[in-house]
Amino acid sequence: MKKKAVAVCYEWLKPIICAFCAAILVIVFAVRMINVDGPSMMDTLQNGDKVLITNLFYTPAPGDIVAISRGENFDAPLIKRVIATQGQTLKINSETGDVIVDGVLLSEFYIKDPTIGGVNWNFPYVIPQGMLFVMGDNRTISKDSRDVQIGLIDQDDILGKAQVVIFPFQNMKYLYT
């Protein structure tokens, strides 16, 4: 009788333990929370927002908001928008603010201000293999690929794609690309 009770208990616990282990694996390997540090992604993201990012089977694409490892010299990851990926030709007109990728003018409804000034590149520029060109949505103050200290981003430094703002609750939203 006692052995039967243990067997029944084990049968109930087995799926619960498996689900718990699967949840831990997802949290550790597929989902991560990042804190937005600074106003460079305003108005899309606010300073102090908590953002969930996913990285399982992810390849960066233009328009995606990504978290970027800044290496050991920096405290927090960068959060920027992918503008161009490997093999794409990028041109930024620093007088008009136009951003053109592969000959197509980007419709940047998400930016706070146009991309005027602060461009230290010779355009047009073809993005090298394995690299990304990223910019913040608040272009006038964002430190991003236009800045020599940041430059192009290696795809291996991408921590994941920002999916949803989870905190503070009044800022909660899904991040469309």
Automatic annotation (TrEMBL):
According to Swiss-Prot or TrEMBL, what is its membrane topology?
Answer: Single-pass type II membrane protein
InterPro entries referenced in this protein's UniProt entry, alphabetically:
LexA/Signal_pep-like_sf, Pept_S26A_signal_pept_1, Pept_S26A_signal_pept_1_CS, Peptidase_S26
- Enzyme Commission number(s) of this protein: 3.4.21.89
Question: Could you name the domain of life of the organism this protein comes from?
Answer: Bacteria
The subcellular location is: Cell membrane; Membrane
* Catalytic activity line of the entry: Cleavage of hydrophobic, N-terminal signal or leader sequences from secreted and periplasmic proteins
User: What stretches pass through the bilayer?
Assistant: 12-34
Gene Ontology cellular-component annotations: plasma membrane
Q: Which UniProt keywords apply?
A: Hydrolase, Membrane, Protease, Transmembrane, Transmembrane helix
A Gene Ontology molecular-function term?
serine-type endopeptidase activity
- The positions flagged as active site in the entry are S40, K80
Biological processes annotated in GO = signal peptide processing
Q: Does the keyword Transmembrane helix apply?
A: yes
Q: Which SUPFAM superfamilies match?
A: LexA/Signal peptidase
PANTHER family noted in UniProt: CHLOROPLAST PROCESSING PEPTIDASE, SIGNAL PEPTIDASE I
Identify this protein by name: Signal peptidase I
The beginning of the lineage is: Bacteria, Bacillati, Bacillota, Clostridia, Eubacteriales
